[in-house]
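Final report, closing paragraph on structural work. Over the funding period we assembled a curated collection of sequence-structure pairs, and we close with a single example.
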Amino acid sequence: MSLKARITEDMKNAMRSGEKDRLGLIRMLQAGIKQREVDERIQLDDAQVLSVIDKMIKQRKDSVEQFRAGGREDLVAKESAEIAWLNEYLPAQLSDAELDALIKDAIAATGAASMKDMGKVMGILKPKAQGRTDMGVLSARIKAALGG
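Its predicted structure, as stored:
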């Protein structure tokens, strides 16, 4: 079952069970997917759907920070719940050891020796790690491995 089909099934289940908050989130996710499909005139595959989900999670994490700073714990709880629901669609996260091994392999494959080669390393790792780790964390680890 594709990720889009799974999201549609989850929407139907949320409707049946009366979960209004979850239903709203799933509809927003579907709207984001549809928007990207219309803008780019393509059908999104699972990897592209994951990038839409990643973007939504990042937006919610930013919102959580802003709401915490503003003392709005009620909204922090709502956004945190949405992050948890969105995380259900992501594949299993990479462990630190797996991430380090991927970085080491990518550096060896590209022959990267300095920060100038970081783009090459990211180019190899991004498709492998998309949706399985935070890209900011990945970037920081690559910098550390390249001595930046």
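DSSP finds seven helices and no strands in the chain. The first helix runs from residue 3 to 17. We thank the funder for supporting this effort.
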